[in-house]
Amino acid sequence: MLLSKEDVEHIALLARLHLSEEEKERYREQLSNILDHVGKLQELNTADVPAMASIAVERSRLRPDVPAAAMPRADLLANAPDAADEQFRVPPVLDGGA
Amino acid sequence: MSAVRSGALHELSAKQALAGMRAGKFSSVELTRTYLERIEQHNTRLNAYLYVAPEAALQAAAAADKLYAKARRKADTKLPALLGLPIAVKDVLAVAGMPTTCGSLILEDFVPSYTATSVQRLLDAGVVILGKTNTDEFAMGSSTENSAYGVTHNPWDETRVPGGSSGGSAAAVAARLAPVALGTDTGGSVRQPAAFCGLTGLKTTYGRVSRYGLVAFGSSLDTVGVLARDADDAGLILKVMGGYDPHDATTVERAPKLDKPSGKSLKGLKIGVPKEYFIDGLSAEVEGGVREAIAQLEALGAKAVPVSLPHTEYALPVYYIIAPAEASANLARFDGVRYGLREEQADLIDMFKRSRGAGFGPEVKRRIMVGSYALSSGYYDAYYGQAQKVRTLIRRDFDTVFKKVDIVAAPATPSTAFRIGAHGSDPLEMYLEDVFTLPANLAGVPGLSLCAGFDSQGLPIGLQMLGPHFADERLLAVAKAYQRVTDWQTRQPAL
Fold first, then answer.
1. Does residue B74 form part of some domain?
2. What domains are there in chain A, each with its CATH number?
3. In chain A, what residues touch B253 (CB-CB under 8 Å)?
4. Does residue B262 carry a catalytic annotation?
5. Closest chain B residue to A72 measured between Cα atoms?
6. Closest residue of B to A31, CA-based?
7. Which of A42, B116, B332, B430 qualifies as a cystine partner to B423, CB 3.0-4.6 A?
8. Which residue from B112, B314, B348 is facing A44, i.e. has the nearest CB?
9. Ramachandran sector of residue B336 (left: φ over 0; alpha: ψ -120 to 50; beta: rest)
């Protein structure tokens, strides 16, 4: 078993996932098995192999910097769970903020 | 209506249907209605479609018929290539005004205001969208069992999975609930369901088709592809939807044109048969079917030679680091702020955690966590860094082999369609379903799977062909030559 319960809680925080106690135990086991399996890669000596930086066949180019119409704000806000005054509304981010 | 009974329009391939409409034998409204009726009749059982758009489809079909009528009055009217052809779209591709759930609860109510480039090009060519098809949540899976909206059933045996993640599209085309459908392939999600459902499935070269409007899973792996009854139909769709798109910087301006067989003979074509794809765990019946198909290609004039892709066994571990790593970054956007499910909390971080905890299903959570771990401080080099190095080796394997042969032929899957629930508790077991399809995504090369016969239980067997970058048309041409002399692709499941 590679991972402890604390490891799983740390990963879940990094990933911004709330997990139940039951999920934590299940994922501890499953993630350990997966990590164990992918650990197979350590058997290869890759000292002289460059890491693949891009799979793209051509070097990607920048498109011309030409102003174009943006998507209408109302369309984009239409999918927001909470919007007000043409903005997305979220819980307070700063301490003491209103 | 003389040559074709109106009740049998669903038996026509896309190519035949287009020819029939052009010749005025039937209308797009009649064709579209035929499919809508079949969806109405069979979809409750199969669960291939998550969303059906009968009104919009019939409206688009009527508009197509008007243009056909105009062309009959005015000979110089230019008709779009796919005018009036119904299609189904996998529910990870955005279509303005239609729900795009990605098979996830987190996007249950999401309706995009824009359309994916691949779909838009098809719309510009005149297609009629029937609806959106089921998928494993965010395309993560090999069976559609990971969809939040229920499993899709394989039309060849409804106790079995259709494959995945484009299982809804595959089941729809196999059951004749659509002539052709769009899918996406990040690790085999077009080729594997095509194999399980007896279809021709094309995974395009990375850079050939724009991913703009495709909800991103693994950005260095994601490709848009097509599930069709035969190579001709797949080619029709590719021709329209491919090409440079300023909205996807990885698309190439001009895809190089590679040699391809023309006509019936495959004389001069060299096929590599990689020994690493004929391993323990490959079912004897699949191996038999695939070897017979390769013999058929040889009978058409091709020469088959053994080749080696030595790093094939590392594709699975490389994939299950890189794909989750990219997924963990891509799916960070689902935070309950701009779109998607939100669980209200007083604290912002709690809101993120609760929203994502409630909205994502088990496989998506697993992959996000594997990815977060692999990218986290202290583990990055050992996991992600090493995986990207081995990915280089996998790509080099293909570069080396394609200096010697024109295509590679191998099984698409280790077995035929498995039973719903067969891989219940162990995620690794499900991952092993993709061992033969993952390498192409890691190398960015095109792949095609086609029906090469049936096993003793009547389930389709898939032959997979891989080619060098931009050999998409070569693969289609070989498939077409094969389909000229076989008739597997014309068989239909009894519904």
1. yes
2. 5-42 (1.10.20)
3. 58
4. no
5. B113
6. B370
7. B430
8. B314
9. left
Q: Is residue B1, in this structure, part of any structural domain at all? A: no
Strand duo B407-411 + B303-307: pairing? unpaired
| B353, two tokens | 């955690």
Q: CATH no. for residue B107?
A: 3.90.1300.10
Does the pLDDT value for residue A51 go beyond 60? yes
- Domain membership of residue B329 (yes or no) is no
C-beta atoms of A31 and B370 within 8 A:
yes
How big, in percent rounded to 5, are the helix, strand and coil portions of chain A? 40, 5, 55
Rg, C-alpha atoms of chain A: 23
Residue with tokens 């629930």: B421
CA distance to partner chain B, nearest, from residue A1 (Å): 15
Q: How far apart are the C-alpha atoms of B54 and B34, rounded to whole Å?
A: 11
How far apart are the CA of B110 and the nearest CA of chain A, in angstroms?
Answer: 6
Beta carbons within 8 Å of B284's beta carbon, 6+ residues apart: none
Is the Cβ–Cβ distance between A40 and B314 less than 8 Å?
yes
User: Residues B443-494: pLDDT tens digits?
Assistant: 999 999 999 999 999 999 999 999 999 999 999 999 999 999 999 999 999 9
Q: The domain containing residue B13 runs over which residues? A: 6-317+384-490
Has residue B1 got a pLDDT over 50? Answer: no
Q: How many domains does chain B have?
A: 1
Residues of B in contact with A84 (CB under 8 A): none
Query: How confident is the model at residue A62, as a pLDDT?
Result: 77
Report the distance separating Cα B410 and Cα B412, nearest Å.
6
What's the pLDDT score for residue B2? Answer: 40
Decide if the complex's ipTM is over 0.90. yes
Of B398, B449, B439, B424, nearest in space to B183 by CA: B449
Q: B348 lies in a domain? A: no
From residue B65, how far is each of B128, B162, B178, B179 by CA, in Å? 11, 34, 19, 18
Among chain A residues, the shortest Cα distance to B110 is held by: A79
pLDDT of residue B426: 85
Is B77 a residue whose pLDDT tops 90? no
